[in-house]
Design brief:
single chain, alpha+beta, Alpha-Beta Plaits, two-stranded antiparallel sheet, 8 helices, 8 strands, 13% strand, disordered C terminus
């Protein structure tokens, strides 16, 4: 088996999930097994839990199903939303350790259960409102909800100085809103942007010491490209449930 990618694993943006999903799809073809997308998701999510012990499964869902998704942990709910998001992605240059960050929050929860339950409940409300904003293509509202979510994530202690710097730079340059991506601690931030300010926002992220990552949104999920006889998976998809990652 060989893996080719135009996306680097150093960024921490779903590349390992994409490889896991594509591998399972390829094995299904190799052994002539008719495996559904849901079965691919379940198997790849099990791989994630076996290897790192924790994870929401969102990256696995993005790589499997594609599109713009509303997602709940473990795949208990996966809903396709109709539109791509106008995103700019900035990389901090710091590789984050997702399992360590998740366990950090788990330890906080043991000590401050009441406080964290309140934060989680408020984040859940933001997710529901964000889903509605995406469905209405109300990007200014979505941006404000992202800003509110970022405040909660800072309270949880999973943001970082570099993430905050890039997020504030994007907002000052005209982004509707911005927040960290995934578990935090480093890796990437995402901003919802007006089309006419995209270039300015990208430059602001670079000026803040970040790297702008070129991603496609609302892309297809795992598939077979018959022209090259290769199994590929795309994991650069986002949805509002990523607030909970």
């Amino acid at each position: 088996m060989s893996v080719k990618s135009d996306f680097t694993a150093r960024v921490g943006f779903g590349s390992s999930s994409a490889v896991s999903v594509a591998t399972i799809k390829a094995l299904g073809l190799l052994y002539n097994s008719k495996i559904s997308e849901k079965e691919i998701f379940d198997l790849a999510y099990k791989v994630t839990l076996d290897i790192q012990g924790v994870g929401s499964g969102f990256d696995i869902a993005a790589a499997t199903f594609g599109g713009t998704l509303y997602f709940r942990k473990g795949g208990s709910e996966v809903e396709m939303l109709s539109d791509a998001l106008p995103l700019v992605v900035g990389y901090t240059g710091v590789k984050a350790d997702t399992p360590t960050l998740v366990r950090f929050v788990q330890e906080q929860y043991k000590r401050q259960k009441g406080k964290l339950n309140k934060i989680f409940s408020e984040i859940g409300d933001l997710v529901k409102k964000s889903k509605a904003a995406v469905q209405k293509q109300d990007w200014p509202n979505l941006g404000e909800l992202m800003n509110l979510n970022q405040k909660q994530l800072r309270t949880l202690g999973v943001s970082s100085v570099k993430l905050d710097t890039l997020i504030e730079a994007a907002k000052r340059a005209g982004a509707y809103g911005a927040k960290l991506s995934g578990a935090g601690g480093g890796d990437c931030m995402v901003a919802v942007v007006p089309a006419e300010k995209r270039i300015l926002i990208e430059q602001a992220i670079r000026n803040g010491g970040g790297e702008v990552i070129s991603v496609g949104t609302h892309a297809p999920g795992v598939r077979v490209e018959t022209s090259a006889n290769e199994t590929l998976s795309s994991a650069t998809h986002y949805n509002t449930q990523n607030f909970l990652s």
